[in-house]
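ok so I'm stuck.
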Amino acid sequence: MAVKIIQIELSEPVKPIRLRDALGCDVQALVRLRGEPLGWLYFRHNEVPVSRQEITSRVAQHFTWPIYEASLRHSLRAGEVLARQGQTLLAEAFQAGNTNPSPGPAMTVLVILAAKADLKHLPACLDALQKQTYPKANYEVCLVSLGPAWPEAEKAANEAGLVLFSGTEAFGRAVAAARGELVALTGPAGVSDGGWLAAVAQAADSASIVAVTGPLLPLELETPAQQEFASYARRPVGFARQYLYKQVFSIPPENFGLPLNAAFRRDFLLKQCADARFKAGFGLAQLLHLHYTALQEGFTVVAEPKAIVWERYPSALKEARRQLQDEGQSRLDYVKSAAAEELKSRQMLEMRLKTTIRSRVSLARSARKLKSLARR
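replied:
not stuck anymore, here's the structure
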């Protein structure tokens, strides 16, 4: 059964789900408040059409506490929403009065579109980046060819007016050319949410935060391959902001997301690009290594729920299974590499402790000899 993905924004009048909008499909709706995701609502195909009153009732039933928390963060009046178990029209509770402090100066961001071979969805990706709420003067986009350059990449870059980096160490050269504080990563298979860059920049509000990741949500679930992919693909879950600090092995690798939705401080990223891992390009294995290094060095990684990228799942079964296998292998390699580095660091620590103990024992013996000589 095909699944129709829609969004319900509670700060706007709730619209009913009509039969023509989801004919013969189940409906999966992302509920949001002022762009902040609260969770999913599910409607079976035999429940469609769904009236406005039924939607508001279900929202109040399932999201009472998240609405209350989000309303406090946005300085909105949530009392009417919480009352009468959702029979209140939700939009009436979110009248003017957003007293959030005005944001500070916008950081300059370089958006890197990392592509391997398939560029058929690049126009949709670029269109989403053009519609960002972030000031257009504060971000630029470039295309990085992961591997040898191919004519399609050059043609796409020329048509879109993008700078193309290809060949040896293309990713590192793109990072070095960045003129801003942040480098955001996505790709042709990702369609960034309108507030993606704004959420990323807002989350990176401290110098100790060197990396930001966010949810990767399905853009469509219309083919059996996409539905199978959704069942087995391990993507970050939950819509609560998390601060990750020195929790290297307590964090599952899938919580670090994919290169379709990541951002790093340019200085940190440029330093890491000197590693041999980045000579061949940038993928999931390199992303996991970056997060591991950030946590090991005492920096903070933020999982920001508002930094949403909609991921286009593979529509063909063979392609979906190959991508699942590649992602699984990359995560396994990361776990092995991180465990080996941890073992090495512990062995070095043990050697330092043994050396310290030996030196202290030697000093103690020398002190006893000096005391015995002094007595004579």
